[in-house]
Specification:
globular, alpha/beta, 46% helix, 8 strands, 6-stranded parallel sheet
């Protein structure tokens, strides 16, 4: 009886966790991991907003006239609404990265959607007046229910370039070298503007911003355009995640 229970538990775990991992992370089924816009790349930033590092990052992006995508945590958006407002006002895309940085593997499908994604979307919508439709799960991990429920409401975005910028002892020079080596037209690059999540170095965003400054100078000299994720995907895509006209994005935000 115990052996049967253990076998059943393993089977359920494989179905609930590993099948979605294989489909999305390996086969890239049902998710966005690269774009089609010629000479375009998208920088995306997870885990914020952070009161120390996010303003510095926004200053850098503004200096280089770069538009990016921020996958924010709802709990931090509640705490720092002015940073969310600034992202929106300066033309960046705001996506969802759960309410708190919890793996969907330990959540039920209903909790990951309603208590994490939908709750964060509600918060961002109250701040900006526009509801996010792009979603990135923490660590890029989805459960089986997410493939059925989450994809009905959101476009799920992963990445094509990850450089481990959250790790301790990764220098700005190393980040620059690795990014320039891996970035190609259509790349979706994942970086982090906060270092307070599990396994991250608190000082890591500082090194990331320093390295990114030199990267932006180099890639713009190569003729690559840094755009939002919604601008990087095929413009013929319609429905969930449809590109929002700039006229709407430039409207007034709610206080």
């Amino acid at each position: 009886m115990m052996q049967m229970f253990i076998t059943l538990s393993i089977d359920v775990m494989i179905l609930y966790m590993l099948v979605p991992f294989i489909l999305t992370r390996i086969c890239r089924w049902g998710v966005l991991s690269k774009g089609t816009v010629k000479k375009g790349i998208a920088f995306t930033f997870d885990d914020g907003p952070d009161p120390l590092y996010t303003p510095c990052l926004l200053d850098l992006l503004k200096e280089h006239e770069v538009k990016a995508t921020f996958f924010v945590l709802g709990s931090k958006a509640e705490k720092y609404p002015k940073l969310i407002q600034r992202m929106y006002q300066e033309g960046h895309q705001i996506g969802i990265h759960n309410y708190i940085h919890t793996s969907n593997w330990v959540l039920s499908p209903w909790k990951s959607k309603r208590e994490q994604a939908d709750r964060t979307a509600d918060i961002v919508e109250r701040i900006t007046g526009e509801r996010p439709t792009f979603y990135r799960p923490p660590w890029g991990l989805l459960n089986l229910g997410d493939l059925l429920l989450m994809r009905k409401s959101y476009r799920i975005v992963l990445w094509s370039v990850m450089v481990g910028d959250w790790k301790p002892m990764v220098s700005a020079k190393q980040l620059k070298y690795t990014l320039l080596k891996r970035i190609k037209p259509g790349s979706i690059v994942v970086l982090h503007d906060s270092g307070d999540t599990l396994g991250a170095d608190k000082e890591a965003p500082r090194h990331m911003i320093t390295g990114l400054k030199e990267v932006l100078e180099d890639i713009q000299g190569q003729g690559l355009r840094c755009v939002r994720t919604d601008e990087l995907i095929d413009k013929d895509v319609r429905g969930i995640g449809e590109v929002v006209p700039r006229a709407k994005r430039s409207g007034q935000v709610q206080s």
